[in-house]
Amino acid sequence: MRVLAGVLIVVAAAGAIPAWAQGDIPGPFACSLGDSQVVLYANEDASEYAGELAPAGDYAAMDSGEPRLLTLRQKYNGWRTVYENAEMTMVINADAAQLYGAFGTSECFASRSVAVGESWRGGGQLVSGEGQRWTEWAAPGGAITWGGNVRSGPGQEFKRVAGVPLGVNVETIAVTDRTWLDEYPWYKVRLPDGTEGYIAGGLLCSREGRSGMYNERDCTG
Questions:
Q1: Is the full-model pTM beyond 0.85?
Q2: Who has greater pLDDT, 132 or 59?
Q3: What is the pLDDT of residues 61-74, one digit of tens each?
Q4: Taking Cα atoms as reference points, which of 131, 123, 130, 143 lies closest to residue 186?
Q5: What is the 3-class SS of 26-87, one letter each residue?
Q6: pLDDT tier for residue 56 given thresholds of 50, 70 and 90
Q7: Of 82, 143, 155, 177, which has the fewest beta carbons less than 10 angstroms from its beta carbon?
Q8: What is each CA distance from 147 to 72, 121, 201, in whole angstroms?
Q9: Do residues 108 and 41 touch, judged by C-beta distance below 8 A?
Q10: Burial letters for 150-177: b for 16+ Cβ neighbours within 10 Å, e otherwise?
């Protein structure tokens, strides 16, 4: 999954329930809107898609305001599903989506990552740090490190708080809606010395085969 910096997912229920609401919900969809970007997630009954509009690229470094919430509510459910607000329309056809508005047309990237599946269930906790915000879900358990850096937040842009070698046993506290290498979610972990921080699931493994971790070679390196 391509996770875009500064994106927060906020959902609410309203409107009719699409035919696919009880099965696989399309998305989420990462979309570029001119100089901005957004990741749109469905709520639990897929009657809405919502996310926070954030500046893209170099514009992100100049932004000091609060992100703007973007919400689109379902208008039509048939061979394609249409969501809209006063400024734009999103059309979903199978697993593809397009946004239409004054900015033109945006083809949106769809994802099926482990972190996306977690975010569909709702009930997460909003967390913020170093000017960014993300969502976490409790994920108690154990894991073993492949080595790498533990950071102050779920992303390589966050400061390094510790380094771990291969084979360290850590306690997992939470899983986030941020991903690394378009696939593995970031986990909040506690190290043996009590230090807490975030490490990508691609740098963790579990002999129980926990999803979202790199579980190859039975954690033996």
A1: no
A2: 132
A3: 444 566 678 899 99
A4: 143
A5: CCCEEEEECCEEEEEEECCCCCEEEEEEEECCHHHHHCCCCCEEEEEEEEEECCCEEEECCC
A6: low
A7: 82
A8: 41, 30, 11
A9: no
A10: bbbbbbeebeeebebeeebebebbbbbb
